Amino acid sequence: MAEPLPDGGVAWQLAFVVRPRRAWPNLWKATIDALGAILGRDNGACEWNARDSRVTDLGLHRTVDPAAGNRITIRSSAGSENTTG
Questions:
Q1: CA atoms of 36 and 58, how far apart (whole Å)
Q2: Nearest CA to 53 among 72, 73, 36?
Q3: Which of 35, 38, 41, 80 is at a distance of 20 to 30 A from 59, taking alpha carbons?
Q4: Rounded CA gap, 32 and 29, in Å?
């Protein structure tokens, strides 16, 4: 099981490879909701209730691949946000 990132802001990049007619905006919300193991959850929160308010820098990327068919490829990169200032 993954350990949640340390408390604080999180910078996140999500990249999707989808077929041309795929409504990819429907994918990113569900993907973030499923990241509770990494973002953490509040005590008593259900499985799909990740602490997504921690994401303070979000990049969403889409590549269209006609050969993808029904397959969806997701790449993810995350880290604690630098809060020096």
A1: 16
A2: 36
A3: 41
A4: 5
